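dumping this here before i forget
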Amino acid sequence: WNNSPEFMLYVVKDGKRIYADKILVGTIGYATPVFSADMKTIVFNPDWIAPPTVVRENILPHLKNRRYGILKSHRLFVSYQGKPVDATKVDWARVNGMAYTFSQKAGPHNNLGKAKFLYPNRHHVYMHDTLPVRKKYFKQPVRMIGHECVRMEQPLRFAEVLLAEANGTPPARVKELWEKSNNGTVTIGRKLPVHMVYFTAMVDDAGKVETVADVYGLDRKMAVALFGSAAGFPEPPPESK
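structure:
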């Protein structure tokens, strides 16, 4: 249960929260979407493949202007239909750049960190670890950075909880995968729904209503649609810096 405006995830079993963690969600321009899908796999020490929005908006504009430094600075490998490509020999102004694959190898500089949690969906959104340099964002009250995917503060503990519940996997085995595997894929052994939600008002177990800020301004849009005005609904708070 990922609640974007609360910047929190919960694992819920039999109606009770058995785990909670802080998350980072996308910025307003790349808002984390609302949908549900079943988690299928966890990949430890994964390669990263740049998603379509990153390729289109952050990579191709550089290549079309022959600024190849972006590939080196982000340790990106380029391939076409599975075969390596020398990016300096491609006429990026003429080819369909979206047909190329841009990836990072697993390791300490990988955008996904040590693990990714996949629940296939049309948004190309998933959950993952993050680079050490970005861990500081978990200390901020408003945690919006980057694109649509969700990053959690304690991915190892999250993996331990999920695999214990879904597969009966002991923590020692999960830690071994975390430390030693390379693109090690584990299939989730039971139905495990993931709900990507947007609730600014929730009721706790004691019946108390809790509210959080409308970080994407969706409550304001809903108010305009329902009442013709967003009067009384505050503006979204500033994003993480």
